[in-house]
Amino acid sequence: MEKWQLQDAKNRFSEVVNKAMKNGPQLVTRHGADSVVIISVKEFRRLSAPKTDLVSFFKQSPLYDIQIDLSRNKDRPREVVF
Q1: Distance separating alpha carbons of residues 27 and 5, to the nearest angstrom
Q2: What is the pTM of this model?
Q3: Which residues contact 43 (CB under 8 A, 6 or more apart)?
Q4: Is the pLDDT of residue 75 over 90?
Q5: How far apart are the C-alpha atoms of 47 and 62, rounded to whole Å?
Q6: Which residues contact 14 (CB under 8 A, 6 or more apart)?
Q7: Which residue, 12, 28, 51, 55, is most buried by CB atoms nearer than 10 A?
Q8: CA–CA distances in Å: residue 20 to residues 37, 39, 62, 68, 78
Q9: Residue ranges of the domains in the chain?
């Protein structure tokens, strides 16, 4: 991963973006400390995509086989006292 000082990255932003798209992530430092990483949209989408779909996620839950009683109590509500 190539490192860029913030001032250089600002002055050569098009080059930083092109390198991120062609060569991978570009690290930008501020005052000598790592600050941000510039990545391509393709890489961002790959990294932020869900690992599994929602149905598979719930099927893998340790609570998948537990039976829950969802019946509702039909009794009258308590009286409100003021």
Answers
A1: 9
A2: 0.62
A3: 20, 24, 25
A4: no
A5: 26
A6: none
A7: 28
A8: 9, 5, 40, 50, 65
A9: 2-59
The Cα 57–Cα 51 span in angstroms is: 9
Candidate CATH numbers 3.40.1620.10, 3.30.505.50, 3.40.1160.10, 3.30.450.80; the one for domain 2-59 = 3.40.1620.10
Q: Which residue has the tokens 């890489």?
A: 43
DSSP assignment string, the chain? -EEEEHHHHHHTHHHHHHHHHHH--EEEEETTEEEEEE--HHHHHHHHS-SS-HHHHHHTSTTTT---------SPPPPP--
Tokens of 38: 């510039």
